[in-house]
Amino acid sequence: MVLSDALVIVFISLFTAFLGEGVTYILVYRTEKYQKLKVEIEKQTKKLEKKKEVLGEALDKQQKKKIERDEERLKNNNRDLSLVKMKSMFFTGFAFTALLSMFNSIFDGKVVARLPFVPISWIQGLSHRNLQGDDYTQCSFIFLYILCTMSIRQNVQKILGFSPSRAASKQGIFGAQPGQFK
Amino acid sequence: MVQKQSGTDKSSKVHSVSFSELIKLGFSKNAEWPDDEIFLDWIYWSRQVVGLLFGLIWGLIPLTGFIGLALFGICSCGYVYLYCSAFGVDDEAYGGIYEIIKEGFMTNFASFLVAWIITYSSVHWDELLVERL
Q: Transmembrane ranges (chain A) (predicted)?
């Protein structure tokens, strides 16, 4: 029955999303260092955003230098935050690779859903992985799992309040751009 | 409970609104949003719901192929555009209509695809099997 397979995949991705966030909470989010860095980055981002807004494009040399200094500080904090997150990323990376290969073997060669469209050629390798025949509307486990994860993980993060703030994302916190005003 | 830090110069303040207040604000014309983040959260979550509904409808009709995908893109962006014009949202305050339309688009698209694929598969599976025999 196709519906039960598809729903099982939705539950698997719901389970892995909560598990991933739970592990990250225990290893990262609840630590004092992470919380301090997060607050610091958000504060700096807002300060920088406001500064850019007030000063606009017409900047003298001194102002440019000041903004560059702030950006450098933001970049350093961002690097520290990435380091704090690293250990959780390793752990979840290993755990999820093992889980994924287990589920992959369960659903191996099984059509879990029928796609209402024919995917473009470079996605077909994923959507038709380990399936026989050349009916590309047949959907493999991995394709549906990736779509579910894309949708569910982000929403779970948002519900739990773990997603980075918009101001931080806008400033490129996960890849800050220092020297923008050079 | 939606709890977000304020956007600009009110950076130290934390605004929070309950779920019912968020719904009330979302459906009132020219609403005074306490925070940019709360408004964008409303757009994000309402889009998620709309995306899931579109997925269900597309799967039940069923709409297929590129037309289904393109129609979703138009309807999803159209929803945000129409909401902003119908409810008197000053889009310039949020960096222009393009910034609002971008809010949560990828997640919305993924949710839509999941709903569309599952509904289409479960409702039309038997027909598809007969067709291929």
A: 6-28, 89-107
